Amino acid sequence: MRIARFTTGEDPTYGLVDGSGEKIAEITGDPLYQRIELTGTVHEVEDVRLLAPVIPRSKVIGIGRNYADHAAEMGGEAPEEPLMFLVPNTAVIGPGDPVVMPPQSAEVHYEGELAVVIGRMCKDVEPEDALGVVFGYTVANDVTARDLQRSDGQWARAKGFDTFCPLGPWIETDLDPGAQHLTTRLDGEVVQDAPTSDMVHGTAELISHASKAFTLLPGDVILTGTPAGVGAVRPGQRVEVEVDGIGTLSNPFVRH
Ligand code: MG
Hints:
This protein is mostly beta strands and 256 residues long. The chain contains 5 helices and 20 strands.
């Protein structure tokens, strides 16, 4: 199932998107917490505004340097254990929303990533059980103020500015996270292109690792890391991140 969150100008609503990505069937309530029931109303996707498919209530967990070729371009090796950081939920925006480049940074980078949405409260999950706590998968852009990441040491500000965590276009509940292909385009030009099987630590291992530090709650999001090819965005450019089994997340970048 593809689950989207959207608005027609009223309060945000959830819906099921069909295979063509053209129609969206409204459902009652929040599917993270309630059984899915159709209301009977169907919209054209082009007639609604898609929103971030989930607003994490407690946390977005980022994973650093989880593709060896990206670790190499950053001047190091992939860490032996997954390297985690936290992104505030106020950084989350939806498909089509502008990423606002703050005046504090002269070097804002895209990072296309596969994102995991947690479906139930859990702690100390073993890797063999980890995919069982997943609600679904979506696409993320782990936008990073690269200059501040270097100068701050801690990554909270560099990755946590408002609008720095685009998510969408929807959540796909049926997906093999290790068998997808990730492509990032900057104004239409391919800049990142990698199979998710290139992750150093796979999705199940990341969930397990995170759950041994933090209690995971429904709606928590784990960003699984970015492959090689990160780079700077200029104001006015658009970044599209595509994961083939999910869809394409597209956001314009604007100067504050
Ligand atoms: Mg990242």
